[in-house]
Amino acid sequence: MDSDQPSTGDAPARDAAATRRRILDAATAEFSESGLAGGRVGRIAERARANQRMIYAYFGSKDGLFEAVLAEQVLQAQTAVVFDAEDLPGYACQVFDFYREHPRMVRLNLWQALERPDLLKSLAPVERAMADKVAGIAAAQAAGKVSPALPADRVLDLVLALTYGNVAQAGNAAAWTDDQRTALAIAVARLTAPQ
After folding, report:
1. Rounded to two decimals, what is the model's pTM?
2. What average pLDDT score do residues 42-58 get?
3. In terms of CATH, what superfamily is 66-192?
């Protein structure tokens, strides 16, 4: 049975889920290689072994598909990396390690920053996760565990900017060194150390 054809029973739900999963996987590869503007729905459909009609049925548009890919990838990173507001150098190193293991995510983030800079702020799960981190940093600042020199949201922005900057500068995962990781930890520790 063609997974793009409607039918009844449990098989169609599995087929629909499998088709959606193939589309997301193919779109992740396509968008990480070519970005939103350069990504082609036809190539995604071909990689996913699905027809273009199904991409639009599931995601509405190429932009909708890009948003779904970004949301999934960011939530995967949020789940994999443990946030501890009192150990921001450790958090930065975990993010660095995650990106070292998932280089496609680095490229997706770079494309997103270039082509849809406000996208992450508009994704509700990402917005909630960031708000929780900011609240955690504010609480750590109030407890004297993190420097209060900057507002909590700016601290988080700078920690992530240092992390992404180290990752993006290296270009590919094979080039990321433990020295960069150590330098990142030192920079974040100096930025956040209580005074």
Report:
1. 0.79
2. 95
3. Tetracycline Repressor, domain 2 (1.10.357.10)
